[in-house]
What we know:
alpha+beta; seven-stranded mixed β-sheet; globular; 8 helices; 18% strand
Amino acid sequence: MPTSAANVAPIVDQDRAIGTVAAAFLSDPVARWVFRDAHQYLTYFPQLVPVFAGGAFDSGTAHSVEAFSGVALWLPPGVKSDDDAMGALAEEAVPASEHTEVFAFLDQMGEYHPTERHWYLPLIGVDPVRQGRGYGSALLAHGLKACDAQAITAYLEATSERNKRLYERHGFEEIGVIQSGSSPLMWPMLRKPR
């Protein structure tokens, strides 16, 4: 389906949105490095979504495409992740032997995060059985319209080379590399408004 024909809509069912994001990240290199065991992932990743990106639900900036085939959770300027809740969740979910690497990784994420006014896309994902249909592009284009209309920078972290290429096609540029110990690479990326 061409991205222009995809129906992007506000999210009214938070549980369905979390289900889509959890399915989308099931084989994500960074998510599965943090939550290395399948049970650990299935237990904790759905709990991570609302503390990492829940402000999108409250702000009306959570969107789905084609009946939850894909989901984008944008945090508008001034809305942040719940860092304290994320830290507590990581303390509980991640084995103590992995804390040093995981928390160093999270610290690096914080170091790259912009301090100026910006839109942040902490989570975007498409149900694996519906990938390759342009839903991710449709969600990105929809969210970036607000960034451009307000002349505000957009920020995200790419967790794979494939996602990085998608974001680059939408105007994002790599500003560094996040990596700690045995972690995969993650790329913080900025996009200036157009």
